[in-house]
Amino acid sequence: MAAILHITSLQSNTPSFLLHSLTPSPPSLRYSSLKSKGHILFQRRKRSIAFTCQSISDDGDDGYLLDAPVSAGDGFSFSGGKYSDGPNPADEWFKTGKYMKAHPVYGTGEKAKDPIFGLTMGGNSQTSTDLFRWFCVESGNADKPSVVLIHGFPSQAYSYRKVLPLLSKDYHTIAFDWLGFGYSDKPQPKYGFDYTLDEFVSALGSVIDELGVNKVSLVVQGYFAPIVVKYASKHQEKLNDLILLNPPLTPKHANLPSTLSIFSNFLLGEIFSQDPLRASDKTLTSCGPYKMKEDDAMVYRRPYLTSGSSGFALNAISRSMKKELKNYVEEMRKILMDDDWKVKTSICWGQRDRWLDFDGVEDFCTASKHRLVELPMAGHHVQEDLGEELATVIAGLVSRKVRI
Q1: Are 289 and 58 in contact (CB under 8 A)?
Q2: DSSP-derived secondary structure letter, 111
Q3: Where do the AB hydrolase-1 domain residues begin and end (predicted)?
Q4: How far apart, in whole angstroms, are the C-alpha atoms of residue 279 and residue 267?
């Protein structure tokens, strides 16, 4: 008999897990605010937090509340701005992490030049000469089971800021920025990294090896899921669990939404990718109910304000995704359906995803016998909408038969 797992909210702060026998079906974990079955389940209270951005005024006293000083930049950036008075959220986040070196830098060793005018870019756009630098945030006891939190496209490790402190109470947790994002190196194409999906698979392997953990659970969100699944298929012996958050799981998911595909366009995409509001704010808020606070927006905008390399990397990744995503989604489906796939896999789905349709997801989980977790109040970026609840879900999933 298969089982369905409900998580009920009781008087205690710790949710209790109730297991019920059902008719044969794949295990499914469903979050809902409905009370018809006698359970009060997680529901996040709605908040009316509106994102606002002030336009530059005539007197010059008030500008965009952007997370970079006026002088910041590498000599090739279409956007500038100033930060409002008070602590700098991006710098505060940076202090919580560290740099890790992984994956060789291939190429001629020449200074990176922008792809439009061929101008040599500033220091912020140049990468290391031997191994790439990856920004990562690590918390928890290293002797406990390791969980690596992998952000989606386009995002940053910062998206897991609500998950990390809760999950680290019982697990060794690590979140990192992919190459091209956040504080990690952003090599220009043809100068050490071309942002093909195969390169990302290889780069992930270098990161996991550098972490030095024998067994690890991987949590990945969105369009980077097929990359992680391909890596995992070659290294099943290293994984305890694989948790996919709103991955492109059906053939219909293999096409990038217009909000992202615009960055792959010739010239127009290169221009739009240099706009911090379009490259960060719009992409994060257009795919679900997420309402971005100004302090959070400042962190996401920071890379696009301090270096033109962030935008050029976004443009290159978008082109690779548009070209290769279909084949990667097909391969991911085959891997997860294969009888040789032995990794305990769970799929968490925010039902308010405006980019990826839920149609076909439940059927796939039924056919592949993978656990399905439905979160009706979350969108594409589950960790942004329901960070605390997601931490509880992850802890519940990886606690079953964890091996170190």
Answers
A1: no
A2: P
A3: 145-385
A4: 15
Can you say whether residue 73 is alpha, beta or left, with left for phi > 0 and alpha for psi between -120 and 50 degrees? left
User: Are 341 and 372 contacting, i.e. CB atoms less than 8 angstroms apart?
Assistant: no
Which pair of structure tokens corresponds to residue 324?
A: 């290769």
Strand 28-30 relative to strand 98-104, pairing: unpaired
C-alpha 178/C-alpha 176 separation (Å) is 6
* Angle, vertex CA 149, rays to CA 147 and CA 152, nearest 5: 155
Whats the size of the chain, residue-wise? 404
| pTM across the whole model | 0.80
CA distances from 377 to 31, 188, 351, 370, 389 (A): 9, 38, 7, 22, 11
Q: What is the DSSP letter of 208?
A: H
Q: Between the CA of residue 315 and those of 131, 259, 300, what are the distances in Å?
A: 23, 12, 16
Provide CB contacts within 8 A for 223, sequence distance 6+.
Answer: 152, 153, 247, 248, 256, 260, 321, 325
C-alpha triplet 2, 366, 252: angle, nearest 5°: 160
- pLDDT tens-digit profile of 154-195? 999 999 999 999 999 999 999 999 999 999 999 888 778 999
* 292-338 pLDDT per residue, tens: 898 999 999 999 988 888 998 999 999 999 999 999 999 999 999 99
pLDDT confidence of residue 123: 67
How is residue 35 written in tokens?
Answer: 């009370």
Q: Per residue in 27-37, pLDDT tens? A: 444 444 333 33
Distance of alpha carbon 169 from the chain centroid: 21
